[in-house]
Each structure stands twice: as C-alpha cells, then as structure tokens.
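Example protein was shown:

_____
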Amino acid sequence: MQLAIISDTHMPRGARALPAACVERLRAADAILHAGDLVALEVLELLESLGPPVHAVHGNVDEPEVRIRLPAVRVVEAGGARIVMTHDGGQAAGRLGRLRRRYPDADAVVFGHSHLPLHEHAEGFHIFNPGSPTERRRAPRHTMGLATARAERLDLELVELDAAPAG
C-alpha cells in the first residue's frame, strides 16, 4: 500500500497551491494522510477530489468547520502497519521515546506543526513529519512524505518538491 503524506498546507492563502509534483504523488497513492493545518474545509474537499481516500487530523490553525469534521488524533491501518496521526508531536527533545511510550501499539506516528521534515526511527518504531509542500518556513525546501506499507513493514521517505503549482 502506497501512502502520500502531507501536513501544514495552510491554504487558501494568496496564490498558494499544492506543487504539481505533490498532486501527482497524491493522486497515485492508495491513501492520502494529512497531519493538520489544512486551514479551510475546501482544502480537505480538494484532497478528497483527487481520488484516494483521505485520512486527516485537524491542526492548531484550522477553521472551526475543519476542527468539527476531523479528529485531533487518528489511527490508520495500512498494509499491516498501525500509523497514529496527530498534528503536534511535541517538544523535539526526547520526542521519539515520548511518542513511543504514548502510542505503544503504533508502528509510526505521523505529525506536522513545525514545518520541519523529520524521520527518526528505533527498533521498528518511526516518527515522521513530512514538512510542508506549500509553506516551508525554516525548512530549506518544500517537502512531503511517501510510505510503503506491506507485510507489517513500513518504509517512510521524505521527498523534496519543486514549488511549481499544479496547473
């Protein structure tokens, strides 16, 4: 099972749009994961229109309509892997161990909030922040994540994106 993972799209804002390379990967995935800060319900609707099922959580700046529709924490079962989604992974120091203790039955925790791409793992447990495809802030590039889940194995990858919008 192929998963396309994004977070912190913060749309709509000005002419901001998902990069074409991001949209291509979202459409090709078996499922889309969004780790919060979509901002507006129309972003969720845009993602849903791409085809694959969308699994999302709300973030700290999402409008009330988004917060009502999406949970703060969600568990996604994919290809035998158990993925917990939340928006804020908490303080960087000790994050891997803290999230492992908080979600002992998970294979991975996907989160956003910082806009900084991150993939750490130990003993088969992963924490993964895909960064942002639209608002990089302190990150050097726009990014997203891809995951392959099969036979209870989960492989995660950060992908750097060209910022050219889908057109």
In short: Residues 16 and 135 are 9 Å apart (CA to CA). The longest strand covers residues 142-150.
